């Protein structure tokens, strides 16, 4: 491991920090947090230099750009706010995936869980605020869990607690609330018209 030596050690450094773009969130380290910020608000500095490509003996391009799908610009993407599928998740896609996982897990949770199943579910839910990559999302969930602990007595109780908690977050974010009487239709059975069968 190498470190750079500051020749001006001990001297005050000029702040070169620029104002954050609207919607950009700082992580606990004080740096812009990709996983805490929506992709549409994440505007990394553009680079004017392009990486050089190297060719193997067989003529195959072995550069980093050849090992990933084409960029949206090269693929002719019209919507710059659309996140390419090969990119790491942003706060919105991570949130959708996490809520999908939690609601689906609740939909398949037993109606009469054993003490071990209840303990495992509580461990999962209490681990999220400790492990979730988006720090402010994790802190918010931790506060909500402390204020209103998860109800893991049954599948119905867990699904209702999770839906109410999700709706609290939706209200905070200005999103529409979900009709909690429809959790089984949404997360387990699908609509009665069979459109998901």
UniProtKB/TrEMBL annotation:
Any one GO MF annotation of this record: flavin adenine dinucleotide binding
- Which Gene3D superfamilies does its entry note? ERV/ALR sulfhydryl oxidase domain
Q: Which GO terms describe its cellular component?
A: mitochondrial intermembrane space
Give residue spans, biased composition: Polar residues: 1-16
Q: Which InterPro entries match?
A: ALR/ERV, ERV/ALR_sulphydryl_oxid_sf, ERV/ALR_sulphydryl_oxidase
Q: Where is this region: Disordered?
A: 1-85
What cofactors does the UniProt entry give for this protein?
A: FAD
Q: Which UniProt keywords apply?
A: Disulfide bond, FAD, Flavoprotein, Mitochondrion, Oxidoreductase
> Where is it localised?
Mitochondrion intermembrane space
Question: Where primarily located?
Answer: mitochondrion
The name this protein goes by in its record: Sulfhydryl oxidase
**Which organism was this protein described from?**
Multifurca ochricompacta
């Amino acid at each position: 491991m190498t470190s750079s030596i500051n020749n001006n050690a001990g001297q005050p450094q000029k702040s070169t920090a620029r104002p954050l773009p609207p919607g950009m969130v700082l992580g606990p380290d004080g740096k812009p947090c990709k996983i805490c910020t929506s992709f549409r608000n994440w505007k990394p500095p553009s680079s004017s230099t392009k990486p050089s490509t190297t060719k193997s003996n067989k003529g195959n391009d072995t550069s980093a750009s050849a090992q990933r799908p084409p960029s949206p610009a090269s693929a002719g993407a019209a919507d710059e706010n659309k996140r390419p599928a090969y990119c790491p998740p942003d706060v919105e896609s991570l949130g959708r995936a996490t809520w999908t996982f939690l609601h689906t897990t609740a939909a398949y949770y037993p109606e009469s869980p054993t003490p071990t199943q209840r303990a495992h579910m509580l461990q999962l839910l209490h681990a999220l605020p400790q492990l979730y990559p988006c720090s402010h999302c994790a802190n918010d969930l931790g506060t909500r869990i402390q204020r209103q602990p998860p109800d893991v007595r049954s599948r119905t109780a867990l699904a209702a607690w999770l839906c109410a908690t999700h709706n609290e977050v939706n209200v905070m974010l200005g999103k529409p609330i979900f009709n909690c009487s429809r959790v089984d239709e949404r997360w387990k059975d699908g609509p009665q018209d069979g459109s998901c069968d």
